[in-house]
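Open question from group meeting: does this chain pack into something compact, or does most of it stay loose? Before anyone orders reagents, we agreed to write out a predicted structure and look at it together. Recording both the input and the output here so the notebook holds the full record.
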Amino acid sequence: MASFPEKLNEQVAYEFAASQQYVAIAVWFDAETLPLLAAHFYRQALEERNHALMLVQYLLDADHEVVIPAVEAPTTTFGDAREPVALALDQEKRVTEQIAELARVAREENDLVGEQFMHWFLQEQREEVASMSTLLSVVERASESNILLAEDYLARNPVGDQGEAANAPPAAGGAL
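Structure tokens returned:
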């Protein structure tokens, strides 16, 4: 079984892959002239990149090897506005499972510092799944009549924490 630091390095790959997927989704929405949905996913891409860099910083601080991995190409084509948001929700659910596994491994290894570090990510994932579920519901309802209603919703109701989390762990490279 992989150790906590090894699993953290794996998670770096998952977070960078999530970032790339969100860039691809944002670009798709940009091409569809849905700028607020695009902006939401560009922010999500930066947030996921920062999550990867938070893991990197933890590994550096704990004097563990850091492995910056290659990632698979993201999905870039979608049939309608619902598909990319549904993909994003599935991705957030998968990441939540990965983070829970990391916390479990840290606990099993009696790495209390590592387990505590993962608690912030668990809270973040709860927010991510909830906000993406909300966005999917809005897009599904808007798609029934006019997808621009989703843009209107986002203009009036920011979804998620907008990438702002005061208690977030430090990311490698500082506040990039």
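Observations to bring back to the group:
The chain is about 70% helix and 0% strand.
The two ends are 34 Å apart (CA to CA).
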